[in-house]
Amino acid sequence: MRMQFWRKAVEDIYCDNPPHQPVAIELWKAIKRHNLTKRWLLKIIDEREKNLDDRAYRNIQELETYADNTHSALLFLTLETLGVRDIHADHAASHIGKAQGIVTCLRATPYHSKRQKVFLPMDICMLHGVSQEDFIRANQEKNLRDVIYNIASQAHVHLEHARSFSKNVPVKAFPAFLYTVALEDYLYKIQKVDFNIFHPSLHKKSTLLPLYLYIRSWKKKY
């Protein structure tokens, strides 16, 4: 019902008939102001609806597809609010969104494991002989860390791909991409603890993160 409401709300908004709901009204204002693309909003709704069954991703490609249709779609909308419509920026946003989706999945693993749920790609788990029960029990064997290494490496690859477009990305787009700093920070921390997803240090705030964000912003880098 919730997804049906938002799907109809988006359609009504683009007909200049937003429902009398605070978020929908603000979304309508943003769409009018920035000429936001309806396709990205519907992609987010459709993908979230597919993901409501709370099952593990079958493979890394399925996780990337989810990330592309949600995190990347949000980035495309953010770029449009910044007045950026550029193919190089879109390519970078697609890879950053995929990296964010992968990192979000990793970061949420300890939380979900405590609730008897595991969403990590099954193909990589099977490759290393790791079961969902291993994560639920918070095992710290090498094969479990190998699973995390493989998944984290894919996020790193997407960040590197995104940065390969940086010379051609308009400067106006850079504020939308600054949270690559937070993604990079998490990937560095997980590497530092030898990919132990349950290490306590991964749950601590990074006190230097605001400084890193300021430096990247000042240097116009992401």
Tell me what the structure shows.
The chain has 222 residues and is an all-alpha fold. Helices cover 65% and strands 0% of the residues. It contains ten helices and no strands. It has helices spanning 2-13, 22-34, 38-50, 60-81, 87-114, 122-127, 132-136, 142-163, 180-192, 209-219. The chain is globular. The model has no long low-confidence stretch (mean pLDDT 95).
> What is the molecular shape?
globular
Can you count the beta strands? 0
Query: Low-confidence spans: pLDDT under 50, at least 5 residues?
Result: none
- The oligomeric status of these chains comes to single chain
Total count of helical runs of at least 4 residues: 10
Q: What is the terminal separation in angstroms?
A: 39 Å
Largest sheet: none
What labels would you give this structure?
10 helices; single chain; mainly alpha; 65% helix; 222 residues
Describe how the helices and strands are arranged.
Layout: H1 2-13, H2 22-34, H3 38-50, H4 60-81, H5 87-114, H6 122-127, H7 132-136, H8 142-163, H9 180-192, H10 209-219
Helix pairs in contact: 1-2, 1-3, 3-4, 4-5, 5-8, 5-9, 8-9
At a glance:
With 222 residues, this protein is mostly helical. The protein has helices at residues 2-13, 22-34, 38-50, 60-81, 87-114, 122-127, 132-136, 142-163, 180-192, 209-219.
